[in-house]
Design goal:
The structure is a homodimer of 397-residue chains. Chain A has 397 residues and is α+β, with helices and mostly antiparallel strands. The first copy, chain A, is 34% helix and 23% strand. Chain A is built from ten helices and 17 strands. Chain A has helices at 13-30, 40-47, 75-84, 107-118, 136-145, 157-162, 167-190, 197-210, 276-294, 302-314; strands spanning 34-37, 59-63, 70-74, 92-95, 124-127, 150-153, 225-228, 248-258, 261-271, 325-332, 335-342, 356-359, 362-365, 368-371, 374-378, 383-385, 394-396. In chain A, strand 15 (374-378) and strand 16 form a beta hairpin. In chain A, helix 7 packs antiparallel against helix 8 and helix 9 packs antiparallel against helix 10. Chain A is globular and about 70 Å long. At the A-B interface, helix 3, helix 5, helix 8 and strand 11 of A face helix 3, helix 5, helix 8 and strand 11 of B.
Chain lengths: 397, 397
């Protein structure tokens, strides 16, 4: 249960127990006795630990024969590990500060010493080979220190378990979605041609944190993407100090975040009078997203959903190369995507209740684009939308 | 030169040329013909590329015999690479979207094909082994694909070149520092016991982006750290929705960011009347930071500066285990630290003009702490402070 204050452990212990059991079952299936978890989202999923400490070395250790995971991290963050998680004192194992970005001491050596002490066996260690914070250096030093151990790539092992959300998780994602709606509402209200881009970004961030009267928000994995005018052709550029200007689209992609869960949203706000060609582009996006959303239900594949989108926009003579969407849930920088299923023609993942996606159609015409997106969760019979802002081009004359 | 709009290439071409020449000189010294750069700060340093695209595979290639670096990244971000950098069209080499988080195609294979095409030699490739976005997977796949090539750890090669800032860089850091000062001013003005923590975070973020009337800010590498009451013992926990409460310290660590350059600042705001023991703790921090700052000048070592701090606080019967500070400059998530020199007893780096540090003294007494920090750049004769907010405990009765 999420508490009213956004404080304390966000889930009941029984939910963490179920998650750990699922992970151990998958370890068993793959013949892994020890799993080393570096991806912050996966650490949070299993323990509730969410401090911003992944910029220094940290690892969660799950062993087949140990009841609890073991947190390895920096001394100054151990106090957060104790407060945020259910872990017993013996499962919080910090290293001293002389290991931090230091030439004298190596945190991987600390990890290896801890593994030898706490793990009954070290036959096959699963590691997240492609995870953002599992560097080439860590892997090289770890494998050299444990030459008798077999290393197995367990990247995305937990991410694929995370793909189906529990009712408690969906409740939090609904809260994140309400913040997303409020951000778009504020941005639409505030946007004016003589406003600097950075001042619109300030309004977006303010609402992202202030949230609602009932609950606030926290930082997201990524900045808002706020691209105006011809810059709307750049999906990931930072904003500038320029005035937004008249007769220009403002593409805004952002998300509310609640207890590390995201429900992203994008809308295009057009300041002035859009040309007919641009309106037609927006119509195609709306027709495409409505068609694709109508396809969503348990049993269809990601590819089926994407095909519905391509078929709809093909009627307007359009095609989109980039994928149509991705799974969402817990996020830490640098992305709120879960990196599992994608809505694309080659992905045959079958939709099932509890799976959550950000469907993100966007189309470009020369230098300018339109994006109108929808976060949703798959239900027993179809889908539930996580944001409720109307799916249409927003025009502010 | 930074432009007034925070737009376009932030440095003159001659400055990029000097940077590239320094990197090639160091490659030569180490016998590296090809350098693969994954750290976003280092890519930005050499090219000006700053889009938020490092969550998918990207790499900058510097070859000894090639005039320009080559950008490898995702198709949708190539438009940013063309606009933000001086790179010629042939040096922007994007891969299609079916390489993104996909089981069918592997972006490392795309990189290898590009290396074979563009690099006259591939005898010794330098890679950033411990960089955040150089994963174990990338390294394993790359070394397997190029068995004739020698791989050399070139982590921090560019970071150590970055340690001395040019006048143009220092000018930008002064702008970042002015935003830092404005954030603290706003936070002190707004903080009240009956305010939710998230609403104070909203005010911090608003000023971070709105910046000053002359120029705005952009997103920082890290969220503000805003820890109140007994939570002030946790340096990296997120804020909650709780009311801040009376007779409690608010520890705020944050930074303004201008053109990816940071000048961080921390202050403690005490709401109510601090106990005498707490005031004495704050006095010790102030005496310690003033003593350590007075030590800063070219020729002294990082260890000398830290020793001055420890000597000063030892007079109050105190000792601090964690390092006293670290180098700053360009930052991308997850940290604004440059990961080179640290102000700690074991670091014998000699201070030189242009080096910039965030000195971050903090002391804890049981559950509560005080932090009062200072970003500065070393000058020919001493130091220049990058923020000007008074170095003292802020008390709001």
């Amino acid at each position: 249960m999420t508490s009213a204050t956004g404080d304390g452990i966000p889930f009941e212990k029984a939910e963490f127990d179920r998650r750990l059991a699922s992970v151990k079952q998958e370890m068993e299936r793959r013949g892994i006795d020890t799993l080393l978890i570096s991806e912050p989202s996966n650490v949070y999923y299993l323990t509730g630990y969410e401090a911003w400490s992944f910029y220094v070395f940290q690892m969660l250790v799950v062993h087949r024969d140990l009841k609890d995971p073991v947190w390895i991290g920096r001394m100054m963050d151990a106090v957060s590990a104790r407060r945020m998680t259910y872990l017993p004192e013996d499962s919080v194992r910090p290293y001293t500060d002389d290991y931090v970005q230091s030439a004298e001491r190596e945190p991987v050596d600390f990890l290896v010493a801890q593994l030898r002490e706490i793990c009954p066996t070290l036959d096959a260690i699963g590691v997240e080979m492609g995870a953002y914070y599992y560097s080439a250096h860590i892997h090289a030093r770890l494998t050299a220190a444990l030459p008798q151990t077999r290393f197995v790539n367990a990247e995305l092992l937990i991410n694929w378990i995370r793909i189906r959300k529990s009712p408690a998780e969906i409740a939090i994602m609904r809260e994140a979605g309400k913040i997303s709606d409020a951000i778009i509402t504020d941005a639409v209200e505030a946007a004016r041609p003589d406003m600097r881009e950075c001042d619109l970004a300030a309004i977006v961030y303010h609402r992202m944190m202030a949230g609602t009267p009932d609950y606030g928000g926290v930082y997201t994995t990524s900045p808002p993407f706020l691209c105006t005018g011809t810059r709307s052709a750049e999906p990931h550029a930072p904003w500038s100090d320029r005035k937004i200007g008249n007769d220009a689209p403002v593409n805004l992609e952002t998300s509310g975040c609640r207890r590390r869960y995201h429900s992203p949203i994008s809308r295009t706000i057009f300041l002035g009078t859009p040309p007919d060609s641009y309106r037609r582009l927006a119509d195609a996006v709306v027709e495409g997203i409505e068609t694709a959303l109508a396809e969503v239900r348990p049993g269809v594949t990601c590819a089926d959903v994407e095909r519905a989108w391509q078929t709809a926009i093909a009627r307007h003579g359009l095609h989109k190369e980039a994928r149509l969407g991705y799974t969402i849930g817990i996020g830490f920088p640098p992305t709120w995507g879960e990196r599992t299923a994608s809505l694309r023609s080659s992905d045959t993942t079958v939709l099932a209740p509890g799976m959550a996606f950000h469907m993100m159609p966007g189309l470009w015409l020369g230098d300018v684009g339109v994006t109108i997106t929808q976060s949703f969760v798959v239900t027993e019979t179809g889908r539930e939308d996580l944001t409720s802002y109307p799916r249409q081009l927003v025009v502010k004359p």
